[in-house]
What does this fold into?
Amino acid sequence: MTSISMRLQTKLYSPRQRSRLVQRTDLLGWLHAHDQHPLTLVSAPAGFGKTTLISAWVTQTERGVAWLSLDHEDNDLTRFLTYLLAALQTCRPDLGTTMLALLAAPQAPPASALLTILLNELNADVTPLLLVLDDYHLIETQPIHDALTFLIDHMPPTLQLVIISRFDPPLPLARWRVRNQLAEVRADDLRFAAAEATAFLNDAMGLMLSAAEITALETRTEGWIAGLHLAALSLQGSDDAAEFIRTFSGSHRHVLSYLVEEVLNRHPADTLDFLFQTSIPERMSAGLCNVLTGRNDSQQIFGKLEQANLFLIPLDYDGTWYRYHHLFAEVLRNRLRQSDQTRETVLYQRASDWCAAAGLLDEAMRYTLAANDLERATAIVEQHGIALLMSSQVALVYSWLQLIPKPLIDSRPLLALVAAWVFMAARNFDALEHLLNYVPALQATDLSEDAYGQILILRACLASGRGESEQVVAYARQGLPRLHETSLGLRATALLMISYGLVLAGDWLAAEPILKETIAVGEAGGNLHNAVIGYCILSKLELRRGEVAKAQQILQMALHMATQPGQPPLPITGLIYIGLGVLWVNQGMYQQAAAYLQRGEALARACFELTELVHGWQAQVKLHLALAHPEQALQVVDAADEWLGQIVVPHFVRQHMLAALRTLRVSATQPPAPLARTAATASQEPVEPLSERELEVLNLVSQGLSNSDIARKLIVTVGTVKKHLNNIFGKLHVSSRTQAIGRGRELGLLRP
It folds into this structure.
């Protein structure tokens, strides 16, 4: 299980109701009466019982309740949307699997596109849902505010949203008020009235105060629940309640400081020490607290603190994870920092070590950075970065690299290699090439064999993006034996590059056994991404042999291997869906094909498999034309064109997606071609994108150069030039140099 998924568990629970909770009947009744509004905003300063009120309300609603507790780390848009979707999945486990896969991609689509996918799924189900976003005041990122605005503006009637915040969020609240789409609970609504203060102080907290004393406390705290709570804790140990109440005054800030001091001073030294040391983590378990404090009875301490109402909040239903009330934790941390900064740093380091050992890598990194310990931070990236990349955690690793100074990345080989694999996953070939050629850490002469092997595999990947088959095979074959024998995931990448290079060169038979080895090693090493690609290429081999049934069987095997119940699909599974969709279009199974092609497109966009996307678009155009829907065929092309303009890809790749779209647009405006291919229809057939090297060869051909001249200019053999020409002729559906030049000019592939 990844660190993010483990962290999610405690963010998705509503706070557990206390047995001595004051029932706020009037407020709960008001909330029930206004539950038809799309948005309910609960906005008040800290300590007014916002979360307690809503957690009591959701226990009484008939809707499915999805709860998300936010923190500062959720200001990343991808993380926020991932957690929001995970919250909804606690009620609808089948919801948003495609969206979740897209969020894990190196370049996720725009938030509006992702949320549209989610909204369409929500619209298709009549199950009423209530989504609560707690502590929204911690969100400061405008793209998140924009995404939430889009969600609220387009929410289906089955979804209701509750936002809990210390202040009004920067959302279009005025517009929603005018449209009667907003219900609001404010500080004045949340203040304890006299009867509620009496119930809390005398019944819940076990005091025996007179009506006059309760009124005095309620007046001085202005109904502020946290103030009353702290006052009650102080009174429980006071010998003179009347004198305490008489002298009790001041602003909320002063009241807080005074009362916390009063509360803390009434506890023994070992309890205080426990409180200070455990204030470091945002959430805590007995195991973590034992490491922080050096004791072995933290679980028992939790029980005592909870019994004493000392602002300890359970985060799950089995008493494993807790946190302190935010105000209380803030005071504890400030006291710790003022008393001993060195001790604070040591505690952060202990928390980081424990989280790393528990697989909570994101939290481990956060505590390491809080301790300003770059050495530990780099060690986490170096030890876990590549494994996380293979499990589609590209955005997480990228966010870590953003926190590490560039000179450090440039000077440490393992760190630079993680950065290189991130660039590779994101198809940022320019940045990858710069890293491989100019970063000092990767130019050192004393690199380990494994590191040198990784560099060679990365160069093979770089060459594959340019269609340089000989270089792909050469680099991969040099790199494979240098990789550590236990690095199965990386070895699968090397094997895939060898087989892919052979396919580029047209040697499918030689590629076949290596593809099968790629699949076996990829599955064993957890590199399902490359295993899926291996399956897909094998299916194409069977199609070349005319074995359609075998090709379909291989793709079905790949789908079974790559998809797990309850887990989001890997973006690379988009290739499988597209492959099956293409097969079914060719067999006239249009309804089944449409669903697979659409899902395949969404997933393949996330992993930038542009060649397969073109195949999917071609199949969709063919499908719509066969059903006499030319408008929908054009919509496919328009949507593809718009998306291509939004993503960051190398220039030569973009020039290929443009050439294919031009042909697709022509195809979409034509009636379906007859089954028999003729010379007249050949020019209308969709074109498979040319590689960068093939484009270069085509342009040299247009300049009148011979095969020998081209070979000398590109420093390759004449045989390699002929292979490139054969590939060009096949992709452009031509049979001669003259036809290739004409077709290239028609598609805009030739330089002026």
Q: What stands out?
A: Residues 1 and 359 are 8 Å apart (CA to CA). The chain has 41 helices and seven strands.
